[in-house]
Task: structure prediction
Amino acid sequence: MQGLNHTKVFIAETEERNLAGFVETYVTRVEKVGKIGVIYYIAVKPEYRHKGIGRSLVFKAEEYFRVRKAIFSTASTKYDNLASRLLFKSMGYKELLVTHNPGPVVERLIKALYAYEDDIIFYKRL
Result:
């Protein structure tokens, strides 16, 4: 996984200790925004989806961010990733569509999240 030298990974296991999913996170500071937590990557194996595992992983990430005094939890995904969009929206995240001329604060968020111009950024005040 890219960036493991500065990220924290949490895993979700089944009762049989099978890997069901994971979330890779980090905390960074964004000028004019403050300290933010970033959900860099989240994945749940197909056979374990729709069982609350993704929600549990996001909650774990948010808990980690709060302990580290982040004021926002953030993530990004492609516009057509409906499952991810529904998950974050159901958990109180707002969507920010990245445009070709985003402005300085959003530009800093894009850089902090390693996002792309066609991504959607999610954010939630902690």
Notes: The radius of gyration is 14 Å. The CA atoms of residues 37 and 49 lie 24 Å apart.
